[in-house]
Design brief:
By secondary structure, the protein is α/β, with parallel strands linked by helices. The chain has helices at 13-21, 44-55, 70-74, 77-95, 111-125, 131-136, 182-185, 210-222, 241-253, 347-363, 391-396, 412-417, 445-458, 462-465, 477-489, 493-505, and strands at 35-40, 60-64, 139-143, 146-150, 153-156, 159-168, 172-174, 202-206, 225-230, 257-260, 263-269, 276-282, 285-291, 293-296, 300-302, 316-317, 320-321, 334-336, 376-378, 383-388, 401-407, 423-429, 435-442. The strands form 6 sheets. Strands 1, 2, 3, 4, 5, 6 and 18 form a 7-stranded mixed beta sheet that branches.
Length: 507
Amino acid sequence: MHASSHVDAGVDPDAGRIANVHPPDWVQPTPAGRYNLVVLGAGTAGLVTAAGAAGVGARVALVERHWMGGDCLNVGCVPSKALLASAHAAARVREAGALGVRVGGEPRVDFAAVMERMRAIRHRISPADSAHRFRELGVDVYFGEARFADDRHVDVGGVRLPFARAVVATGARPVVPAIPGLADAGFLTNETVFELRALPERLLVLGGGPIGCELAQAFARFGARVTLVEMADRFLAREDADAASVLRAALERDGVDLRLGTSLGRVELVDGGPAKRAHLGGPRGTSTLDVDAILVGVGRAPNVEGLGLEAVGVATGPQGIAVDDRLRTTNRRIFACGDVCMAQKFTHAADFAARTVVQNALFFGRAKLSALRVPRCTYTDPEIAHVGLTDAEARERGIEVDTYAIDFADVDRSIAEGTEAGFVKIHTERGRDRIVGATIANRHAGEMIGEIAVAMAAGTGLGALARVIHPYPTQAEAIRRLGDAYNRTRLTPTVKRVFDALLRARR
């Protein structure tokens, strides 16, 4: 739900953002009869649901307890990508010598300026998610704690909102592991790291998922000494193992100390703080590590507490709210979407799930979550992008696949730019060209994966991608070349004999 907007350059960016996403002088609307839809939560899922429903003429109430825009605008996608842009720029300066450009030594990162730029970007984007904008769209926006009074009313600060249908889109929060001493020593999560004003000289990142990898690389490129601790024997466990290996090499080049198969046993303050001593256990045995900050990124927990779900018969489970393929809960009047119920906790997944909810909740639709082809991307350098199944996931489901792969070291544009690390890997059904999944590891992987996602959504086979003309030279040409690779497999001995006979007849 983000769009670029210009704002007053003289306004403090944090104050300006908050004035948009939770105005301190906001006057709650007065309910005017029963709402077609009451939406709990104003992150991406809630905003798209509310805007979509209001756009078709529904009477909509939207309830948010904290900031509109949710994680994505305030503590997720927007600030992290602004931070990564600065980190990657520093890396480009360091890499310039290999391209024959002399820059006169190590770049100096002004961390305070980096963070101020990030805050200005949040402010600039925030009007698109603002309470005032949604009021203009015809949505009644309420701030406060929402709770189901019964299966036809939501209570917000003593005000009852009657509804025909309701949608729970309350999102998720960082998981904080129960590690002795961690809470007393203090730690950062994605909800607090963007409030830093000074660069931690020594940073321990706990967790090797997308958040941990992205921020570990960013802070290392800013000049911090970063240690990444992951309990498993590899990071990015959901991704293709070869892609994770490409990223591992990149992180190590950036100076990240990777501690895989390692756990954080306890934390204590050093001589009363603020430095912290982490006690680690892993393949290297037990050890201690003194750091200035600990960033926790070990997962997300759905926000289901305090909503009165039990009273209205809405079941929850390990994934959060239990929903069927149409995103209905166990109470057929109540739907859910986004991080509170979905395994794929991405902004774009929440966006399209919300569109499914609008169709199903208001118009008795039969749209299914399983029909969505949701790509994902980890925005490290190189990026790791994926859609569909990995080869390992295909094997687990008993699906036999053929895999077509090309290294960017064999792609002319990548050679010219010096971005040869990585590959494109596409999986098809064994003996057919139906694409079941793809992984791209490359500096521009997130931009490239969309072409394969379109092909999968349209039912276009890999062979047909060989007929898509790409500008030369581009990195996306690698996808076309894999289409050629598939088509060459169709030249069986029998087909070749037929071709040979036809060619002899034409001599």
